[in-house]
Write a structure and sequence with these properties.
The complex is a heteropentamer of chains A (267), B (150), C (667), D (278) and E (336).
Chain A (H helix, E strand, L loop, with lengths): L1 H12 L5 E7 L5 E6 L25 H4 L4 E5 L1 H12 L8 E5 L12 H10 L6 H11 L3 H12 L7 H5 L24 H14 L9 H5 L7 H15 L27
Parallel strand pairs in A: 1-3, 3-4
Antiparallel strand pairs in A: 1-2
Helix pairs in contact in A: 3-4
Chain C lengths: L3 E6 L11 H9 L4 E7 L5 H13 L4 E6 L2 H14 L7 E5 L1 H5 L6 H19 L7 E4 L3 E5 L3 H12 L3 E6 L13 E2 L4 E2 H14 L3 E5 L1 E9 L2 E8 L14 H5 L5 E2 L8 E2 L2 E2 L11 E2 L5 H5 L4 H5 L12 E7 L1 E4 L3 E3 L16 E3 H8 L20 E8 L15 H15 L4 E6 L9 H10 L4 E4 L2 E7 L2 E8 L5 E7 L1 E6 L1 E3 L3 H8 L26 E3 L9 H19 L3 E4 L4 E3 L16 H4 L5 E7 L5 E8 L9 H5 L5 E3 L4 H12 L3
Parallel strand pairs in C: 1-2, 1-3, 3-4, 6-7, 6-18, 7-10, 18-29, 20-27, 21-22, 21-27, 22-23
Antiparallel strand pairs in C: 5-30, 8-9, 11-12, 12-17, 13-14, 15-16, 19-28, 24-25, 25-26, 31-34, 32-33
Helix pairs in contact in C: 1-5, 2-3, 5-18, 6-7, 6-15, 11-12, 12-13
Chain D lengths: L8 E10 L4 E8 L2 H6 L7 E6 L3 E6 L10 E6 L3 H7 L6 E8 L12 E7 L4 H12 L7 E7 L8 H9 L3 E7 L11 E2 L2 H8 L6 E6 L2 H13 L7 E4 L15 E2 L2 E2 H4 L2 E3 H6 L5
Parallel strand pairs in D: 7-8, 7-11, 8-9, 9-10, 11-12
Antiparallel strand pairs in D: 1-2, 1-6, 2-5, 3-4, 3-6, 12-15, 13-14
Helix pairs in contact in D: 5-6
The chains are: A alpha/beta (267), B alpha/beta (150), C alpha/beta (667), D alpha/beta (278), E alpha+beta (336).
Chain lengths: 267, 150, 667, 278, 336
């Protein structure tokens, strides 16, 4: 933590960056995103188990970008998000300083995107373990059971779009649900509208989800919608042998193809 | 169940399957009239959301068909579509939405008879599966909110 | 305001026999905004079309649905009729009641109901159609031919003879390509130089052709009719205008031991050289890598001896910026070098050569003036073994394809050898003899029957040396895989034809796709073998796959016709059924966020990211833009666009959505 | 049964005028006579117009309350509702609820000169009050209308412009942006603020009613100030996104002011009080 | 009406629940497997939660459903016909177990839905609603009802307010006629109230809402908004869990010729909430939208609707994925 604070301070002091995006402790003891612009306030930065939010979502937020060049406290999911955002032309790699945090909570020396790539390659890129267990549980059910299981979740949805807003990859300025010519997704938060919304969201993240689980965590009514995108992340790797967010030059799996892509259902 | 006439929508590309279905006609091969075709320039154009919209509007089954791999009029549209369907199918399976109701096929412009087979086998299958109750319920549950308090 | 006219065709009885057309027309007539719904026996007939034209005027129709046969049959007919009736042709749709309904179903209520569904769907669609205008793209009537081999030469001459300007780019100092290296050509055995040289000269002298040799494509931008090509004209160290081509410099150059590329390394050349006597242009270039002056800073003998003072040591490379309307890629092929086959001992044994080297040995203008002499000691080989399929059709070597020309040239080589060394023995190891083509099989038969070439069906496993002699070891599969061992004075490998060096790089510059072997990819394997998937770029010759001369020439002429057709009008007219990325006023500019997902899916490289700048020059927004000159309207980009910022005219999201809804719901 | 405030009147389209390729004017008649008789509105008010199945869209009533028996609205094809409105035909049904909002204080203006300044598609919200005051012509002194559009074809109400032009008691100045003119164009060429400056109407005993795109307002205000207009004598209408029309749905407020209840008509004096949120 | 206090024993409470659910729908909180508490219709009494601090969602959907049809219509060739929603069919509902913040919110909602023009949909639902409130014996750091003029045992909005005694029995304050009617329908379940104080949690006062309102009057341009909303990601969670947020959207949906116009919850936090078709957006960035949310509740509503738009339930803060803590911000605002 001291290393992190010192590094943040140094970056702000020598003008390398204008803002450091990290975590601070809120009054209720929760960690929350912090935007440090004053080196004297770098001491507020923390990094511990409470710091779970994927901060990469702020890299595309207009008012944060307006602050100037950014440094960002980056765990693996953040780093993978950054890779995706660079690949998709949303941020410029040389415009951000990555304050990498290892799984042991140590400050990493991520000099550039190349180093970050090397680091990511060495990491376990699978879905988090507890999610793997839930996925396995669901995959063991019959389709009808899975339908019932998901419908119970969908009934809870209030279409607040916290799942979308919390996701670093959902940076579109106009989401499909906001298109009304035609009205692709029913506006209503009813079982139909909610089911189609979650299908849409998961499909749009196919090959792009970096398994941070932020969508599920953000859901105020507790829908584990991250399992949808994580299942697809698994399948993307299964079919196309790709993990999202492993390079700054990724082509989405749904934007490319191999003539011999395997499937067994097209007759 | 015997008087159940399934509604089946076919999403096909202009260059292969649509032309193949034309050939079925030219060859006067008969098939079930439950299937109605919507023409697209290419399977690559077919948005996965349209499949859901078909179910939401009451389709009991869907056929998606285009050019065989390597035969795409636009070289690669069907390959992109293939990947899209792989992901879509995995997601639908995971959500428990019945993929037996969708036939994905490649039917070329020369395969008039095959088109009839694809249609007939799909209609037979959907007939056995019966009306797509669970999706209709999903939609209806949402339609009939009216005065209920929840 | 929507006023739709619906015309239900009986098609004689083709439709009305199974579909109750009257009921269809009546039911559809009750739909919202259907101003007219009528039936007629033959809509495509003159009176039928007149019916439409008059109805358009009478009812002030804003859309027409002709419910008849397949749109693949009569869509152009009815769109034209609508246009003649004063309605934008793209406001006309067809409902396919014949091929997709009456012909495939029995006569019953369900069939008529289906017909109604089909028509209703098109009615709902056509309400959302918009009047579209054909896209006009201006065309610069100058073609560029890349590559000066026989394919490029043929294309250039054909285009030039159609009256269009052609710029030919050749990376070596002379045009002529591989054909100029050949001795004789199959199946006629006429001299290659004799038939090629006049064409080369014609290129040089043609008023419509500008030739740049020793030049390469640097970059290509733009699109069909409007390419901007940068060409690097490498410095020849020579004032070409001043030089008379006297050749004095080449004889005086002190560097003489440079392996001659034209002779496939079997002869030597100086540092200032003309690649071969018939070269076009017949002007020397200085090979900077070997020139004493460039290497050591002194010499300049050529400058001293040059009678016209044409040598320019300080000449820089020149970048030409050219405006081009169409491009023919004719960059040819190369052969796999024999060092690819360690088992055959190429390199270790001097007397193992490849096919092109044999061509030079057999050529009257070659290093041996046409005598077949083996490289090691200059003796006439008494026993010669030709190995066909050296590399080709060998998936283990990574080349699964047939190189197509080897069977024929191996037969030719064997014949040439027998004609020159009458007492010699020629053996050919082969897998299959592929001699499809006019007079080709006869040619091979002649080699076997008249020239007694010994054809052995089987593969060669190894070549080894024993007591200063080469032994070729293989099997004869026609004799039940019997091992064969043949003593050889010389071995000629018919190595596989492969993509030319730099093909991949060029393909990327041109945005043309290429296959896994780096051969350029045609737009359609059957119906568009000459086109690439980038509009306005065509293929000629062996850059697409190995080809013989007649095939290359035919394709080259084919490509020339494509170019001429393109140049036949000053504007290119294209169907406006293209994808568009939405644009709105600032500060939004577009709902597109430039994620770039659409870019790689486009088979035509029609999508680029456009930058929007504020007054101070800052980039404030990026969004995808689709070049309507390139887009072919497949719509794959539309389906992958997450923010639905792309739409396809004619198959818009609104339209296809309305179709789905209309097909499944009663109104 | 109690009243459903979201239930629109059913209206029949009795006339359609294609003002420009994108702009239509509908004349709407109540299907129910009772409703027609009970209905009244004043200049400046707006309503929610709907296509059943597509939704509602907000625009001003463009006809004058002095013309009884119908209302008119003018809209430009822009979104889902206006696009589907544009597809409708004479005889089709639309929904209308309203009138909502406040009105132009035309009684206060009696005895004064009126200067109407509009740009592009902003003439419709003003047409109502223009006709209203024209129909009560004797109550007002000079009436001057300055109307500009990007091009000649973007000018709406072409027939009425002609009528106004021909009337001796109205001074009409039309203008199009440079480059937007046709060979036959006999009006002014130039942007509205510049034309206004050139015309230089007197601010003495005059009320200015200004409506147009933000950029036009921005450049016209200084001209009006220069001509001596006081903030309280300049009126405009605001358009914010609305859904309900009753100050409930939460969209249209500018600070604590509901455009749907307290507006849409504001004097410039009031506008200056508002936070920058419109 | 004069408030009367009664005793209702633990066992009688269950009987009361059974009695009420016999005649009408009952809406009560239930603890789910993942520990969150959600309201359900007619749950068995055994499942009804009584120890929770706050349910995930507020109970506003009982009077302002997340989706509510406004009318149905049918489109024919040129005609359209409208079918009214039969509001008289709205069932009688008993809300059971709601805390004072949630019950007080009905008044706040009324101040929006009926401030100028009466919204019948809302009014009818309120009419059919009987509220059995439960005073809070537990609270947490997110609670700040006392800062909004309420208290953990406020009877505002309840027809009967139950407060727990040490031994698990309850005292019942009968607040309204509706409450009285219940009392009259099952007098045997109620006994005379003891003179014992119920267990009521203590909720610290964090700020003075009057002072906040006063400060906000001139705070529109304050840098506070940007500084304190940088981490806001613009989701609608706070508005959707809020018991008093009432912004809504009106949309149409059709199937064939039949369709409906409905309203559904909306949020001022969404970027497209105020977006004009032209692309112009009066509230273009998140800080402006955050400002609107606070201003609306603490400045505009007191001014225009004569009620504070907040009841201090703390859901928006506890449900916020990025820890936007509203009471913390209000505390800061009263001192700017």
């Amino acid at each position: 933590m001291t290393n992190l604070i010192n590094r943040a301070k140094e970056l702000l002091e020598n003008g390398t960056v204008k803002v450091v995006i990290g975590y601070e402790a809120g009054p209720t003891g929760l960690a929350r995103p912090a935007f440090i612009t004053d080196p004297a306030k770098a001491g507020k930065l923390i990094y511990d188990d409470r710091c779970v939010q994927n901060l990469a979502v702020y890299l595309t937020k207009a008012e944060v970008k307006n602050l100037g060049k950014m440094a960002i406290v980056s765990t693996l999911p953040v780093m993978r998000s950054i890779m995706m955002l660079i690949s998709e032309h949303q941020v410029m790699g040389d415009n951000i300083v990555v304050l990498g945090i290892s799984t042991e909570k140590e400050l990493l020396d991520i000099a550039d995107i190349g180093v970050m790539k090397g680091y990511i390659e060495k990491c376990d890129l699978r879905n988090p373990e507890k999610d793997r267990e839930t996925l396995a549980m669901l995959n063991a059910l019959t389709p009808a059971e899975r339908f019932a299981w998901w419908q119970k979740e969908m009934e809870k949805c209030i279409k607040c779009y916290a799942c979308r807003q919390a996701c670093p990859m959902c940076y579109c300025i106009r989401c499909t649900v906001e298109v009304n010519q035609p009205q692709w997704i029913p506006v209503q938060a009813n079982p139909h509208g909610s089911t189609e919304w979650h299908i849409l969201r998961a499909m749009h993240l196919a090959g792009r989800c970096i398994s941070c689980g932020e969508c599920g965590r953000a859901c105020p009514v507790g829908i584990p919608c991250h399992l949808l995108t994580m299942q697809l992340a698994d399948q993307v790797n299964n079919y196309f042998h790709v993990h999202a967010g492993t390079s700054d030059n990724m082509t989405s799996v749904l934007s490319t193809y191999e003539p011999n892509d395997k499937e067994s259902f097209i007759i | 169940m015997s008087d159940f006439e399934p509604k089946v929508v076919a999403f096909v590309c202009n260059w292969c399957t649509y032309a193949g279905a034309d050939l079925t006609g030219t060859s006067r091969i008969k098939y079930a009239s439950n299937v109605k075709i919507i023409r697209f320039p290419c399977t690559g154009r077919i948005d996965f959301m349209l499949l859901l919209k078909a179910f939401a509007n009451g389709a009991d089954g869907i056929i998606v068909s285009g050019c065989h791999p390597n035969d795409c009029h636009y070289t690669s549209g069907n390959f992109h579509a293939k990947r899209r369907w792989i992901m879509f199918k995995e997601l639908m399976d995971f959500m428990g939405i019945d993929m037996n109701r969708i036939t994905f096929s490649w039917v070329s412009a020369a395969e008039g008879a095959r088109w009839a087979d694809v249609v007939n086998s799909t209609v037979t299958r959907i007939r056995e599966l019966g009306p797509y109750v669970s999706y209709k319920e999903l939609v209806n549950k949402s339609v009939e909110e009216e005065v209920k308090n929840d | 305001m929507a006023r739709i006219g619906v015309f239900v065709c009986h098609c004689g009885e083709n439709i009305s026999a199974t579909v109750d057309c009257g009921k269809v027309a009546e039911t559809i007539g009750k739909l919202k905004h259907v101003a007219l719904s009528t039936e007629y026996k033959y809509m495509c007939s003159d009176p039928g079309q007149t019916l439409i034209k008059e109805a358009i005027k009478e009812h002030n129709l804003t859309g027409v649905v002709v419910s008849a046969c397949s749109p693949r049959m009569h869509e152009p007919t009815f769109r034209k009729a609508c246009a003649e009736g004063g309605l934008n042709p793209f406001l006309c749709e067809m409902a396919n009641l014949r091929e997709h309904c009456s012909w495939v179903h029995e006569k019953n209520e369900l069939t008529t109901e289906k017909a109604i569904d089909i028509v209703r769907t098109q009615v709902e669609k056509v309400k959302l159609n918009s009047a579209l205008q054909p896209i006009k793209v201006p065309v610069t009537k100058t073609a560029m031919v890349i590559g000066g081999g026989i394919a490029g030469i043929q294309s250039a001459l054909d285009i030039a003879n159609c009256g269009h300007k052609v710029i030919m780019i050749e990376r070596s100092p002379s045009i002529g390509g591989h054909m100029s290296q050949l001795s004789e050509t199959f199946p006629t055995l006429d001299c290659s130089q004799c038939i090629l040289t006049p064409r080369m000269v014609e290129v040089a002298q043609h008023p419509n052709i500008t030739l740049y040799t020793y030049a390469e494509v640097e970059s290509v931008e733009g699109f069909i009719g409007n390419f901007k090509v940068k060409v690097r004209k490498k410095a020849k160290s020579l004032d070409e205008k001043a030089c008379t081509g006297c050749g004095l410099c080449t004889t005086k150059c002190p560097q003489k031991k440079i392996p001659n590329e034209f002779e496939q390394g079997m002869g030597m050349r100086p540092a200032i050289y003309v690649p071969f006597p018939q070269a076009v242009p017949n002007r020397p270039v200085i090979d900077k890598e070997h020139c004493t002056y460039y290497l050591k800073g002194k010499c300049k003998i050529c400058e001293i001896v040059c009678p016209t003072k044409a040598i320019r040591f300080d000449q820089p490379d020149e970048i030409l910026e050219l405006e081009i309307g169409a491009i023919v890629v004719a960059t040819g092929f190369d052969i796999k070098h024999a060092d690819f086959f360690p088992e055959y001992g190429y390199g270790r044994y001097k007397d193992i050569i490849d096919g092109l080297q044999f061509e030079r040995l057999a050529s009257a203008s070659g290093p041996t003036s046409g005598a077949i002499l083996r490289p090691s000691d200059g003796k006439v080989p008494k026993n010669i073994v030709f190995i066909a399929c050296a590399g080709s059709r060998d998936p283990a070597k990574g080349i699964a394809y047939c190189s197509k020309i080897c069977c024929m040239y191996t037969a030719k080589h064997a014949m040439l050898y027998k004609h020159k060394v009458h007492e010699g023995k020629a053996h050919v190891f082969y897998m299959d003899i592929r001699s499809g083509g006019k007079n080709y099989d006869e040619f091979v038969r002649r080699a076997i029957e008249e020239d007694h070439v010994n054809y052995i069906r089987g593969r060669v496993s190894t070549i080894f040396e024993r007591d200063g002699k080469l032994f070729v070891k293989g099997v004869d599969t026609l004799l039940g895989a019997m091992p064969v061992e043949i003593e050889a004075d010389m071995v000629v490998l018919a190595t596989a034809g492969v993509a030319n060096s730099g093909a991949e790089d060029l393909a990327q510059k041109l945005h043309v796709s290429y296959d896994s072997h780096k051969f350029f990819a045609e737009a359609h394997p059957k119906l568009k073998p000459v086109e690439t998937n980038t509009a306005g770029i065509f293929l000629a010759g062996a850059c697409q796959n190995p080809k013989d001369i007649p095939d290359s020439v035919s394709q080259a002429s084919g490509a020339a016709v494509k170019v001429a057709a393109l140049f036949s009008q000053s504007e290119l007219t294209r169907e406006p059924l293209v994808a568009v990325v939405n644009r709105t006023s600032p500060p939004l500019y577009s709902t597109c966020v430039a994620c770039g997902m659409c870019k790689p899916v486009c088979p035509y490289q029609a999508i680029e990211l456009e930058e929007f700048k504020a007054r101070d020059g800052r980039v404030v927004k990026k969004a995808a833009r689709i070049n309507e000159g390139l887009c072919q309207g497949c719509g794959t980009c539309v389906a992958v666009c997450r923010s639905k910022s792309i739409d396809l005219l004619g198959y818009s999201n609104n339209q296809v959505y309305a179709e789905v809804v209309a097909l499944l719901n009663d109104y | 049964m109690s009243e459903n405030i979201y239930k629109p009147y059913l209206m029949e389209i009795v006339n359609i005028v294609e003002e420009t390729p994108d702009v239509r004017t509908f004349r709407l008649k109540f299907k129910n006579n009772e409703e027609a008789e009970k209905f009244s509105f004043k200049a400046g008010q707006f309503g929610e117009y709907s296509v059943f199945g597509e939704g509602e869209s907000t625009f001003c009533v463009a006809s004058s309350p002095t013309r009884k028996g119908y209302i008119e609205c003018t809209f430009r094809k822009a979104g889902r509702v206006t696009n589907s409105l544009a597809n409708l035909e004479i005889g089709d049904t639309v929904g209308f609820r309203g009138p909502y909002g406040n009105t132009f204080p035309i009684e206060e203006w009696e005895g004064k000169n009126l200067l109407y300044i509009a740009g592009g598609i902003a003439l419709p919200p003003m047409r109502c009050v223009i006709w209203n005051t024209i129909d009560l012509r004797e109550k007002y002194k000079d009436i001057t209308i300055v109307y500009g559009a990007r091009t000649v074809s973007d000018l709406v109400y072409k027939d009425e412009l002609k009528e106004w032009e021909d009337r001796p008691d109205i001074k009409l100045i039309t203008t199009v942006d440079p480059g937007g003119q046709t060979p036959e164009w006999r009006g002014e060429i130039g942007f509205v603020p510049m034309v206004l400056e050139k015309v230089a109407p007197s601010s003495d005993n005059t009320v200015a009613i200004l409506c147009g795109p933000p950029v036009m307002i921005k450049f016209t205000m200084p001209v009006l100030k220069k001509l001596g207009f006081k903030d309280k004598d300049i009126y405009t209408t605001l358009e914010n996104r609305m859904k309900c029309g009753f100050g409930k749905c939460g969209r249209c407020n500018v600070g604590k002011v509901f455009v749907c209840k307290d507006g849409p008509v504001f004097s410039y004096e009031q506008i200056l009080e508002l936070p920058e949120e419109y | 009406m004069e408030t009367t206090r009664k005793l209702i024993r633990k066992q009688s409470l269950e009987k009361l629940y059974a009695h009420l659910s016999g005649s009408r729908k009952i809406y009560a909180p239930v603890t789910a497997a993942n520990k969150q508490v959600d309201y359900k219709y007619n749950p068995p009494y055994a499942e009804v939660a009584s120890d929770h601090i706050r349910s995930t969602l507020s109970v506003k959907n009982i009077v302002f459903p997340k989706v509510e049809n406004l009318f149905l219509f049918t489109n024919n060739r040129t005609e359209s016909t409208i079918t009214d929603i039969e509001l008289f069919k709205i069932p009688e509902v008993v809300l059971w177990g709601a805390h004072p913040c949630d019950t007080a919110a009905f008044d706040v909602l009324r101040s929006i839905f009926c401030w100028d023009t009466k919204d019948e949909f809302f009014s009818q639902r309120v009419e059919k609603l009987t509220v059995i409130g439960f005073a809070c014996h537990k609270s947490d750091d997110y609670c700040f009802c006392t800062s909004t003029g309420l208290s953990p045992d406020s009877s505002k909005g309840s027809d009967i307010l139950l407060s727990r005694l040490q031994n698990g029995d309850y005292v019942a304050d009968i607040i309204t006629e509706k409450g009285n009617a219940i009392l009259d329908s099952c007098p045997g379940l109620f006994e005379a109230a003891p003179d014992e104080k119920p267990v009521i949690t203590e909720v610290k006062v964090k700020f003075s809402h009057e002072q906040v309102t006063a400060k906000l009057a001139n705070a529109f341009e304050h840098p506070f908004w940007i500084e304190n909303s940088l981490r806001c990601i613009g989701c609608g969670a706070c508005a959707y869990v809020c018991p008093t947020c009432a912004c809504f959207d009106i949309q149409d949906e059709t199937k064939g010729k039949n369709g409906k116009r409905y309203r559904s919850w909306d949020s001022c936090g969404f970027g497209l909430f105020t977006l004009h078709t032209s692309g112009h957006n009066p509230r273009q960035v998140q800080s402006q939208r955050w400002r609107q949310r606070i201003m609306h509740k603490f400045s505009y509503m007191p001014d225009r609707n004569e009620s504070l738009g907040c009841v201090g339930c703390g859901r928006c803060s506890s449900g916020c994925p990025v820890d936007m803590n509203i009471s913390e911000q209000l505390e800061a605002l009263q001192n700017i």
